[in-house]
Design a protein that fits this description.
The complex is a heterodimer.
Chain A lengths: L1 H9 L5 H9 L10 H30 L7 H4 L1 E2 L6 E2 L1 H25 L3 H32 L12 H34 L8 H25 L2
Antiparallel strand pairs in A: 1-2
Chain B lengths: L20 H6 L4 H31 L9 H37 L7 H20 L30 H29 L12 H32 L10 E2 L2 E2 L7 H35 L6 H14 L15 H29 L8 H24 L1 H7 L3 H31 L5 H27 L18 H33 L72
Antiparallel strand pairs in B: 1-2
Helix pairs in contact in B: 2-3, 2-4, 2-14, 3-5, 3-6, 3-7, 3-12, 4-5, 5-6, 6-7, 6-8, 7-9, 7-10, 7-12, 8-9, 9-10, 10-12, 10-13, 12-13, 13-14
The chains are: A mainly alpha, B mainly alpha.
Chain lengths: 228, 588
């Protein structure tokens, strides 16, 4: 035990900037979070770079193509009997995805209160919103491919890269959402079964981190691809 | 004793001892077994890459004789040699091999934080290697686009391997990135969150610092390659035009239009330049530990060495376009990238000075790992100096795409990391296998490899100045090239073949010593870091027996004045006989 106190005195705490550096480089743990959460943050940082590369690639291609870029407000308009409403489907999809972030946040809260039934049901609701989002994306793809003849290599509106970028980026994001839905359902089931009673409910928050990230990425895709 | 019981549930991992042969050696979740699996696969593909380089050298050295190699095959060898060496050998062996082996052992952890994911990482890596190797057996053979895979050439008709080779290559790269991400997340999280008591960041051995920062670089740089690979796959397979401009090929207008080949170059080099440091930083770290241990001296300027690693890592993300000077860019960009490139020379030179000063007045023990480590200082300085030429736009323009570039990067990122790999393999071989290697064979291996290296790559700088272009088939016999070049080419080829044969001595030594080597003591070199203090050699599952080690000092307490031994392990508490040397991990 005497050696334990030696170590403590070696690692005594300091104030101010020095204390900050000390805490950050302290022994054992740099961040006082579970391993899984630290890893999820690092993964999301890496994933951010993937989407950043996709979006910079898109901006570059959009700038370099010689054919005019189609107007997204017109391409992504839907009419319900009357005049076409621009971006209406995308607006609904965005609304759904942001709502799902809200239910996810509530699930995290309920998880820390150890309310298993509410946590699981809120997670399943989040997953359902996610599935709805993917479903609407499938509808959008179908409409573009079958009704309007948009292909990855060409489209009737203008620059062929429009279709290529659209399918690639929304496809990659849709894949993230689909994986998120599966992830949410699996974790919700395990919550319901009581698997985390001993280990704690950080896993709900970790799942939530991923889900919020996917949501945040969509905001950027929405802003860069649809609104511009 | 040095082991103190630690009642810390979060830090203690629950270990399942593997029971059967299969869970122990095949589907193993033990970081040490995964490390060896990674290393063996990497060395296996590395041997293939070495074979390819011998074929290339045969062609260049003896073009009249080596007519069995067609120009198409030559391009395929160039491409596969480069890709395998950079990605599947160096990255995999440094991070998947030594990263996996050293991180938990040097930090005093029982394993990686998520062993199952770590295991998956290896199996996906193996899959990526298999996909890559399949391309050798398809009708067209592997891609011959050059290791940089520049479009439009890479996916245009007429390039060797345009049938399927390029698709396999891109698929294999994507798989490799998935594998690397799974392993890399583990490495970074383990370094950040699973160190043992007393192991602060500033007490970590430099090996860990190098691997840690390199892995972060990988996690941020490989995404760019993944995106480039996906976009090129789409161009090739379903006919999008991300990278492909409208063009006339073989007398016909291609289906593509409006893509940007330069975009690929940016994405590729945004990955490609950090990749140089993904390979170099672990080498920097490991060579520091080898030098300090065998010079019986603390590493000179530990704190600066750490900041140099971090600084080089950060700078490596803002220099990528120095690979693209000839692609054409705004002169101000050239100015910017040349400046950032040359700034990297500052922390790098600092490291070289510190290595030399570590040796200065040390009690040098010229063991085999030490020889390789000192050899590295030579080749790395040499390659670094030629890098200063190529970093300047005006000097780079005439030298670009000549053998000067080939000589430069083989010196700095080919041979130098490989020498460190040899140093590291010899250095940790006793711990990994529990046997000593044969010293004489190791020394022979070193001298032939080091001198052979210079015999191969020094002449390349000269023929580069003569303007001999790289990647050309039979380039010694062309009209644009001086006649004397052919003699140089033949000389380089002979040296290359000798060096390649020397590697067989290394392989023999490694395999023979496994069975017939002397039994190794737990700490044969008198090392201070934790991996030498394990209760068993080779370390058993769980690494530390009952209790985790506790760290009381930095990693370089060699020859501390007043100490009884010339090294003090990190887990030895300070007392009268064992004073603490310079320790940055605590307040003074």
């Amino acid at each position: 035990m005497s050696q334990d106190s030696t170590i403590s005195s070696e690692l005594s705490h300091a104030d101010g900037m020095k204390g900050f550096v000390k805490d950050w480089s302290s022994d054992k743990q740099t961040f006082h979070v579970p391993w899984g959460k630290a890893m999820m943050w690092i993964f999301l940082l890496s994933d951010t770079f993937i989407f950043t590369c996709f979006l910079t690639g898109y901006l570059n291609v959009r700038a370099s193509t010689r054919v005019e870029w189609p107007n997204p407000s017109e391409v992504f308009a839907l009419s319900f009997g009357g005049d076409p409403i621009p971006l209406i489907l995308i607006a609904i999809m965005t609304f759904i995805l942001i709502t799902s972030s809200g239910t996810m946040a509530m699930a995290v809260n309920m998880g820390y209160r150890k309310d298993r039934a509410k946590t699981a049901s809120l997670m399943l609701i989040t997953a359902a919103f996610g599935a709805m989002f993917v479903g609407m994306q499938a509808f959008e793809w179908t409409k573009l491919i079958i009704d309007e003849g948009v292909r990855p290599w060409s489209n009737p509106f203008g620059a062929p890269q429009f279709g290529a970028i659209f399918f690639m980026i929304t496809g990659f994001h849709g894949m993230h959402v689909s994986i998120g839905v599966i992830y949410l359902v699996v974790v919700a089931m395990k919550v319901l079964r009581g698997d985390y009673e001993k280990r704690g409910y950080e896993i709900v928050e970790i799942t939530g981190l991923y889900w919020h990230f996917v949501d945040l990425v969509w905001v950027f895709i929405f802003a860069f691809f649809y609104l511009w | 004793m040095a082991y103190v019981s630690i009642a810390d549930k979060d830090h203690e991992q629950h270990m399942h001892d593997p029971q059967s042969f299969i869970t122990k050696y095949i589907w193993s979740q033990d970081h040490k077994v995964i490390a060896i699996q990674y290393a063996l696969v990497a060395i296996f593909v590395g041997l293939i890459a070495m074979g390819l380089s011998v074929m290339m050298r045969l062609q260049l050295g003896f073009p009249e004789w080596a007519t069995f190699i067609t120009p198409e095959e030559y391009y395929q060898y160039v491409t596969m040699h480069g890709m395998i060496m950079v990605i599947y050998l160096l990255t995999a062996l440094f991070l998947g091999g030594f990263g996996n082996y050293l991180i938990p052992l040097q930090l005093g952890a029982r394993d990686m934080v998520f062993p199952y994911m770590n295991m998956l990482s290896f199996w996906v890596y193996l899959l990526s290697v298999i996909v890559l190797l399949i391309s050798f057996f398809i009708p067209d053979g592997p891609t011959g686009a050059g290791w940089t895979l520049y479009p439009p050439q890479a996916i245009s008709e007429g390039t060797p391997g345009d049938g399927g080779g390029i698709v396999f290559m891109l698929a294999s790269l994507s798989l490799f990135i998935v594998a690397f991400t799974m392993g890399g997340l583990n490495y970074v999280t383990t370094v950040l969150q699973a160190r043992t008591r007393g192991m602060t960041l500033m007490r970590m051995p430099l090996s860990i610092w190098g691997i840690f920062v390199a892995t972060i670089l990988g996690l941020l740089a490989f995404p760019a390659l993944l995106v480039a690979a996906i976009m090129m796959l789409l161009d090739r397979v379903i006919g999008t035009s991300f990278f492909m401009p409208a063009m006339l090929t073989l007398g016909e207008t291609s289906e593509f239009s409006g893509g940007s080949p330069i975009l690929f170059q940016h994405l590729f080099w945004f990955f490609g330049h950090p990749e140089v440091y993904i390979v170099a930083l672990p080498a920097f770290g490991m060579v520091s530990d080898v030098l300090a241990t065998h010079a019986r001296k603390n590493i000179f300027g530990y704190r600066m060495m750490v900041w140099a690693i971090v600084g080089i890592g950060a700078l490596s993300f803002v220099v990528w376009a120095h690979h693209m000077y000839v692609s054409g860019m705004n002169p101000y960009f050239g100015f910017f990238f040349a400046t950032t490139t040359l700034i990297i020379a500052v922390p790098t030179a600092l490291k070289v000075y510190n290595w030399v000063l570590t040796l200065w007045k040390g009690d040098l023990r010229l063991t085999v790992p030490m020889l390789f480590a000192i050899g590295f200082i030579f080749t790395f300085t040499h390659g670094g100096l030629t890098g200063l030429f190529l970093g300047n736009v005006t000097v780079d323009l005439p030298l670009s795409d000549t053998y000067f570039v080939v000589g430069h990067f083989h010196m700095v990122m080919g041979v130098s990391p490989v020498l460190v790999l040899f140093a590291a393999i010899y250095h940790w071989y006793p711990k990994i296998t529990g046997r000593m290697f044969n010293n004489t064979l190791g020394t022979i291996h070193f001298w032939f490899t080091l001198l052979g290296t210079y015999a191969i790559y020094l002449p390349m700088h000269y023929i580069g100045f003569l303007g001999v272009p790289r990647r050309y088939y039979a380039n010694g016999t062309m009209d644009i090239v001086d006649e004397s070049v052919q003699l140089q080419n033949a000389g380089m080829s002979v040296a290359a073949i000798i060096v390649a044969l020397t590697q067989l001595i290394f392989l023999f030594n490694m395999i023979w010593s496994l069975k017939y080597g002397k039994k190794a003591p737990g700490n044969p070199w008198g090392g201070t870091t934790l991996e030498w203090q394990t209760p068993q050699t080779p370390a058993a599952h769980g690494n530390w027996g009952e209790n985790l080690p506790e760290v009381h000092r930095w990693a370089y307490d060699f020859s501390v004045p007043g100490a009884e031994k010339d090294f003090t392990p990190q887990n030895e508490p300070a007392s009268d006989g064992v004073p603490v040397g310079r320790d940055h991990g605590v307040n003074h």
